[in-house]
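Hi L.,

You mentioned the student needs an example of a multi-chain input paired with its predicted structure. This one should do, with 630 residues in total across all chains.
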Amino acid sequence: MLKIENLKVNYGGIEAVKGISFEVDEGSIVTLIGANGAGKSTTLRTIAGLVKPASGTVSFMDEDITNKKANEIVAKGITLVPEGRRVFPDLTVIENLRVGAYLRKDDLTEDIKWVYSLFPRLEERSWQAAGTLSGGEQQMLAVGRALMSRPKLMMMDEPSLGLAPLVVKGIFDIIKEINKQGVTILLIEQNANMALHTADMGYVLETGRITLSGPGKELLKDEAVKKAYLGK
Amino acid sequence: MNKKKKNLINVAVLIALLAIVLIFSYFLPSSSMLFVVLKKGAIYSLIAVSMNLLNGFTGLFSLGQAGFMLIGAYTYAIFTIPLAAREQVYQYFNGGIIHFTVPVIVALILAGLAAAIFAFLIGLPVLRLKSDYLAIATLGFAEIIRAIFQWNALGPVTNGSNMLKMFPSFDSIIKDLNKAPFFENLFISSPWIENFLITMLPILLSGICIAVIVMLINSSYGRAFKAIRDDEIAAEAMGINLARHKMISFCTSAFFAGIGGAMLAMFQATIQASAFKSGMTYEILLIVVLGGIGSITGSCIGSFLFIAASEWWLRGLDSGKFLGIDAPGIFRNGFRLVVFSVIIMCVVLFWRKGIMGDKEFDIERIIQWFKNVPVRFRKMIKWFKNFGKKKGEVSGNE
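Structure written out for the whole complex:
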């Protein structure tokens, strides 16, 4: 579905991503794990069209989207749940959801119902300013907002960041649920344990290069991964 | 209270205000300052709301409002000065080079369009900047516009640094209407109704324009503006085209500032480019901040209060007699500004987010506010008691 070939990205004068290639199959959950500064976020931001790559190609559904603008990419069905949630604090929950569907001109009632059925907590807070929600609720809202564009591929940048372990578990349950309903997921995480347990396929990113790849369950058993990311 | 009831109450409040204006125009002489404040306040409301659209709702800190007002005012004046008067107005430029006029309404729309076109051209380079840099750049452009309009080489069009006059003003429009065959013998001919209509004309025009801005803000475009204000990166990730939406907001703001400028010209009956200094932009910024950044009704309330205080209520401080106290030694030229500054500082101290914050006028909240007056009063006393003490000594401050 999504195919990255030899992608290189310069970010603030540094080569943050040094030629990586990977694929995301339709209907799967794929995760990129790696330490801070490995280039995970840059990769996602490049796919989303927020950053321009130096070279390489990004193709989605057999179509080259390498230098497309962010709004064109959203229209194609790729959406990003940005790092640190980034909900719109002064807008209400429902306004946040509506902004998520900004490029769609059709009726949103069904989708709002769907998001509320995934996150009943958001329905209770419908008219509250998003900035007043708790961290976990904001993460739910960020995911719900991304779903409002009816994505084929949802990219998530560190959904577990700064959340309590129990909340993280809830978020990952929801990720699996969304995946079951037909949305392909590309996830980047520092919480490697959680991410690899959830993912069908995993890639390990180190200083801008992919050093390891394989099904999530296998990577969990890999000695190098255990040592570097799981602390075992 | 449900939405329908709230709307009813809001309409009732508006009608009550209209009735009050009607009653006052019957009892007060047409020269009363009240009417000046109502007219100028309405015009400044529109301009403040247009600035709020940009600064409060889109998060673009722009200080170009005076420039756009100038373009609007001049466009209006240039296209409406009667042909017979051109020889006199453009006395140094052989009657100018424009030899046609357009109806007032068309001229108003042209004024907005001219400002919006300039905004588009300025916006292409300037909107790439952020925060303070955008403010500096727009302020600079506003000054450049002023200098260009005063340039002698453009005299045949702009009359150089000379005054433009004799174009239709609020007074002359209503008075001409009164002389028109259809209205001649109708009830309008009594002077107090005439004064009422002259007062209502700018209020009506501003009201229509503000209603359009409110509709824009409540549309999906408005949501996109607010999203950009809250978080540009997230907005872009949601598929909002940043450059396009910033441009829409910038041009719309300029459009209505242009109309506001034209209305200011209609109010003053004469205009001169040298009046549209950056000080004018600061006045409007002050209104926006006092009223509440991100509140339409706040901007309106703020502008009426601002105009009333600066033009009317505090006038006595400059002329020797204030609230019946005769003290020509203290109350002389310039003292008004001192008092005014102190009042503004107090407002900002007690209402940090402006009078309305980012909320809109709401009858329920007002009732609540009055219920909370004793609590506020106690808080204020406490604040004064603690004033000047060190942090550790402050007792029970929130």
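You could point out the following to them. The radius of gyration of chain B is 23 Å. Residues 191-218 of chain B form the longest helix (28 residues).

Best wishes,
N.
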